[in-house]
Amino acid sequence: MKILVTGAAGFIGSYVVQDLLEKKFSVVAVDNLSTGSLINLPENVFFYDIDITKNELETIFQIESPDYVIHLAAQSSVIESMSNPVEDCQANLFGTLNILRYARQYEVKKCVIASTAAVYGNPTIFPVLEDSKLSPLSFYALSKLSAEKYALLYEKLFGLKSNILRFSNVFGPKQPNGVITTIIKRLIEGETPIIYDGNQTRDFIYVKDVAHACVQSMLSEQTGIFNISSNIEFSIKQVYKEISDLMGVHTEPDYKVLREGEIERSVLSNGKAIASLGWSPNYRLEEGLKETIHYYVNLNDI
User: Fold this and answer.
1) Considering 48, 140, 154, 206, which one is annotated as catalytic?
2) Which of 30, 94, 168, 183 is most open to solvent, judged by the fewest CB atoms within 10 Å of its CB?
3) Predicted TM-score (pTM) above 0.85
């Protein structure tokens, strides 16, 4: 089977490509390299430098005739979305719509679409279930939720199967930003980490578990919305202590006020994904942090 992966040269995308190759699938990689890098991809992967919001995307579907699409390309910064909501909408909503229309036209079997825990906003009942109230607090969350609704309607109207995966906070090596990566890099460089509030909680999921979830979701007969998470809640202060203990560097962070659009508490139930997709997370937070720290320490030594 041939799998088209968008955002393939990015953080999560590169791990998805690797997982697919290890399972002997044929992979077609698409990325506009706005945040991704060719360094993240194996040399033998068919790669197209294309912006998914452009009509030239159709050429890829014409040439490659993919069986499945794993759609990971996105504008993923909450902060950036608040500054540039139009660009955020263009990337996340119109980009997804472009994928859906060509997937339908060229008879793709299923689309796996990355979404986010941010669509839930600040929930009041935990852990958060897939049918919990949706209340986006940022333009990023709103654009991802809107893209979800297009995918669901495409399935209802046209029979284009889709799995929508709401990721909790993904972390791991090669992440261009994110609280864990930023803390590790600052500690390696001898700089004071900046933490916004620190009492807010997150459900951290290791990137290799997320990649595995994307592939399992693609192969599953199930369709619908699934939380992809660890189902474990940590405060940023707890995570900072874990990182500093593992690195043996104890520096008092520079605490600042919580930024606009950020969620105060987040932990997602992963029970539906475990029961329906044949997937479960394999990495504990400590294991993922060790691999991530090891990656950046060695990178710094090169």
Assistant:
1) 140
2) 94
3) yes
